[in-house]
Amino acid sequence: MDGDFISFHDLYERYARDVHRFAYYLTGNAADAEDITAETFSRVWTVGGAVRVATVKSYLIKIARNYFLETRRKRRRETALDPSFDLAVSPSEQLFETRDAIDRLPEADRELILLRAGAGLSYEEIAASMNLTVTAVRVRIHRARTRLADILKGEIV
User: Fold this and answer.
1) 11, 36: one domain
2) Of 26, 30, 64, 109, which has fewest CB within 10 angstroms of its CB?
3) Which ranges constitute the DSSP H helices of 28-80?
4) Conformation bin of residue 120: beta by default, left when phi > 0, alpha when psi is -120 to 50
5) Domain limits at 129?
6) Do 118 and 72 touch, CB atoms closer than 8 A?
7) What is the structure's pLDDT at 2?
């Protein structure tokens, strides 16, 4: 150690347990806490240079917290795979099943689904073409998607 600065090795030896404990408190999971701890020290390492001893613990905790929040935001955006989803079914079979389900929708629902997903029109463009409000289009598309999902799950025959 040199005055007000600390080496990376000393930094890790001194603060890794504290960072891990904090990460475990955030996640409640030992594996996630280990990942956060590793990423925290990895980020300190890639920044390079010496770290001031006076602020080091709060600096490390802040990195760990920010990384935790970052990963939590990313996970929220992820969608879990439907347990009934069959990976053995080929994409062409899935496409056929989806197309068949779309064909079973009432005509108004089918038109909205195809305009939005098939043609890629925005809600505003669909509203203008169908002489509806944007809100009405959003609601009707949501309901059409719900019906489509029910058909695909076999809940509507």
Assistant:
1) yes
2) 30
3) 30-47, 56-77
4) left
5) 91-153
6) no
7) 43
- Whether 83 is in a domain gets the answer no
Give the pTM: 0.46
Write the CATH number for 137: 1.10.10.10
CB atoms within 10 A of CB 53: 16
What pLDDT is recorded for position 1? Answer: 41
> Cβ distance 74 to 29 under 8 Å?
no
| H-state helical runs in the chain | 8-27, 30-47, 56-77, 91-103, 107-113, 123-130, 134-153
- Residues 116, 70: Cα–Cα separation, whole Å: 31
Q: Domain count for the chain, please give it.
A: 2
Closest to 46 (Cα-Cα) out of 74, 67, 27, 31: 67
How far is it, in rounded angstroms, from Cα 139 to Cα 130? Answer: 14
Helix (H, G, I), strand (E, B) or coil at 38: helix
The predicted-structure confidence for 3-29, as pLDDT tens digits, reads as follows 466 777 888 898 899 999 998 888 888
